[in-house]
Design goal:
This protein has twelve helices and 13 strands. The chain has about 575 residues and is α+β, with helices and mostly antiparallel strands. Strand 1 and strand 2 form a beta hairpin. The longest helix has about 90 residues.
């Protein structure tokens, strides 16, 4: 992209009442005495484009001042005509009433300021990019991380294979299979992985050394004894105990069988005696129940007879023939009917009473009959015969045999021998474990050394890769050099960014040296970003020793001279 500023029209902007400035496509010097307003032209350009002054301030005195330094009511209005890749555009910004911004593109008012900003952004991206393109001193003053991030996009790291070939060219012998490892991991990730592996190995070695030390403490007082003699004695004692245990088992089984048979006899006898008692009790219960039923029949018959007798008495002999309502004698027919009914009822109650009396007499006779009966005799001969047979069999059972006892001293000796032999096995296990741990430690030492070899190779790799980057960077400049990496003692690069000219850091250069360095950097950046645009230099009188003729593109430079009026010339 190529950008050229053609014309600047300024009205009511700071000290400029109304002026028009035309720029050539090459060299333009803004000349006038100090304080005549040369820098205001740069302020007007950046305000027209971005709404800020040349030093990036949003709030600054735009409106011209009265003689008493109070703001006038004039409305600043700046128009910049520029050519972008051969197409001419007119950008205009005005401030109405000191508050409202109105912007125009090609003489057409924009609906919003954003529409205008988007148009400008298509040309310069951001105001920082505009300053980087137009102000040679801007990029060197940026933070080094921002400088490096922008700068290094033009110098990507060499490919791993290129670095390996460079190492071979430098006659560097690798200690490990670095090339093979780099097929699957980047150098940085490989370094992180190897360091992590080393940390894990160190942890494992520390754990193993701690275990070995613990085993050494345990084995320090370990004693030995005749293991074969102890095993023989233990086997003999165990055989003896095993024989006694067999006798104990046999005797216990025999005694258990005798006890079971005795329990069976006892159960038979108990069951039969319980049957005799139960059947005897049942016979008594049946006899008592008969007496109870006979007595209950007498009681019921007596109650029925007494009730009928009371009822018969209650009926009386005479019938009341007086009307209960009016107190007069009932009609003869009704009175006779009542007398006949009463006589019938008395007769029926008398008959029922006679029947109840007969029933009572019969119940009493039944009780006498039951009491005269004897309890039915029971025969338990079969049960008693079985009981005698069970008692006889139980008496004929053999006596329980004596159970042998194992000598306690023998058991204690077996326990002592077992413990000694177990301790001996434990010592062997610990010794075997110690040997395995020592082998693991040796294996880990070899793994750690292998990691060290990889890290040393990576150290060489980073060192020479950094060297390749530095060479690539500084081959792009004639008068300056750029330090983008610092190589540490371990070969690892540390990111940095420092501009030097003749070996002198940028911050220590004089003003002319700083401008020359900035111009070379600015040209490099614009070339790689594919943009040609004006270079704006303020206070150009400071740089009289700098050759500005080699600039690629348009130059607009403000220079303090003895000229009375503000004007633009192509030569000084």
């Amino acid at each position: 992209m190529k950008v050229v500023f053609n014309e600047l029209r300024v009205k009511n902007f700071r000290q400029i009442a109304e002026r028009e400035f035309n720029f050539s496509e090459q060299t333009n010097y803004i000349v006038a005495q100090n304080g005549a307003g040369k820098t205001n032209i740069f302020h007007a350009i950046t305000w027209c484009l971005f709404g800020k002054d040349f030093t990036d301030r949003t709030r600054f005195e735009i409106v011209p001042l009265n003689p008493d330094n109070t703001p006038t009511k004039l409305e600043p209005d700046v128009t910049l005509t520029l050519t972008v890749d051969g197409a001419q555009h007119e950008l205009r910004r005005e401030l109405k009433g000191g508050k409202v911004t109105q912007v125009y593109i090609d003489d057409a008012p924009c609906a919003t300021v954003k529409e205008y900003d988007d148009f400008v952004a298509k040309i310069f991206s951001t105001q920082d990019r505009f300053k980087m393109y137009t102000n040679p001193l801007f990029f060197p003053e940026m933070h080094w991380k921002e400088q490096r991030e922008l700068f290094m996009q033009f110098f990507p790291l060499p490919k791993d294979q290129e670095v390996l070939e460079y190492l071979q060219k430098k006659s560097v012998t690798l200690r490990s299979d670095l090339a093979k490892r780099l097929e699957s991991l980047s150098p940085e990730k490989l370094q992180d992985k190897v360091k992590l592996d080393q940390t894990k190995i160190e942890d494992d070695r520390a754990r193993i050394r701690s275990q070995i030390a613990l085993l050494d403490d345990m084995l320090e007082d370990a004693h030995t004894f005749d293991e074969s003699e102890a095993k023989a004695e233990l086997e003999l004692l165990r055989s003896k105990v095993s024989g006694i245990q067999a006798q104990i088992s046999e005797a216990s089984q025999s005694n258990a069988e005798i006890a079971n048979r005795h329990l069976e006899h006892t159960r038979i006898i108990t069951d039969l005696e319980a049957k005799i008692a139960r059947e005897t009790e049942e016979a008594k219960s049946r006899y008592q129940d008969k007496i109870y039923q006979a007595e209950l029949a007498i009681k019921q018959a007596t109650s029925e007879r007494d009730q009928l007798a009371d009822y018969y008495v209650a009926l009386g002999y005479a019938v009341d023939t007086i009307c209960p309502t009016c107190g007069q004698d009932l009609p003869p027919e009704r009175a006779q009917e009542l007398r006949e009914k009463h006589a019938t009822e008395r007769m029926e109650v008398a008959k029922r009473g006679e029947a109840a009396a007969k029933k009572l007499a019969k119940a009493r006779l039944g009780l006498i009959t039951v009491k005269a009966e004897k309890i039915e005799p029971l025969s338990f001969d079969e049960y008693r015969a079985k009981i005698l047979a069970a008692k006889k069999e139980d008496n004929e059972l053999p006596k329980p045999v004596d159970i042998p006892i194992i000598d306690q001293q023998v058991l204690e000796r077996i326990d002592e021998l077992s413990k000694n032999l177990a301790h001996s096995e434990d010592i062997k296990d610990k010794q075997d474990r110690r040997k395995k741990l020592q082998k693991e430690e040796r294996d880990l030492n070899r793994e750690f050394e292998a990691c060290e070899s990889v890290l040393l190779d990576l150290s060489d790799f980073f060192f020479y890769r950094s060297e390749m980057v530095v060479k690539a960077v500084n081959s792009s400049f004639e008068n300056i050099s750029v330090k983008v990496l610092e190589i540490r003692k371990n070969g690892e690069p540390k990111e940095t960014f420092e501009i030097l000219k003749g070996g002198v850091p940028y911050s220590e250069l004089n003003t002319a040296g700083q401008l020359e360095a900035g111009l070379e950097l600015s040209n490099f950046l614009k070339e790689n970003l594919n943009i040609v645009c004006p270079v704006l230099i303020d206070n150009g009188e400071r740089y009289t020793d700098v050759d500005l003729s080699k600039l690629d593109g348009q130059l607009i430079c403000a220079v303090a001279t003895k000229a009375q009026s503000l004007e633009i010339v192509n030569k000084l």
